[in-house]
Amino acid sequence: MWLYAGLVLILYFIFHKVFRRSSPSLNPFARDTRRPPEPLVTDPEARKRLIHKGFTADKVPENLDAIVIGSGIGGLSVAAILAKAGKRVLVLEQHDQAGGCCHTFIKKGFEFDVGIHYIGQLYERSFLRTLLEQITDGQLEWVKMDDLFDNVILGDQQTQRIYQVYGGNQNYRSCLKMQFPQETEAIDQFLEHIKMVSKKASLLVIIKMIPLPLARFLIKSGIIHWISSIFKLASTPLSDVVNKLTQNKDLRTVMCYVCGDYGVIPKEASFMMHALVVQSYQSGAWYPKGGSSEIAFHIIPVIKKSGGDVLMRAPVQRILINKDGQACGVTVKKGKEEINLFAPVVISDAGIFNTYERLLPQELQRKPAIQAQLSMVRHGMGGFSVFVGLDGSKEELGLKAQNYWFYHKNNIDELFSKYCTLSKEDITEGYPFMFVSFPSAKDPAWDARYTGKSNMVIVTLAHYEWFEEWKDERVKKRGEDYESLKMDIARKLMDRVIEYFPQLKDRIEYIRVGSPLSHEFYIASSRGEIYGANHDVSRFKPEVIASLRAGTPIKNLYLTGQDIFFCGFTGAIHGGLICASRVLHRNLYNDIMNLKKKMKKTKEKKES
Question: How many CB atoms lie within 10 A of CB 30?
Answer without folding.
Answer: 15
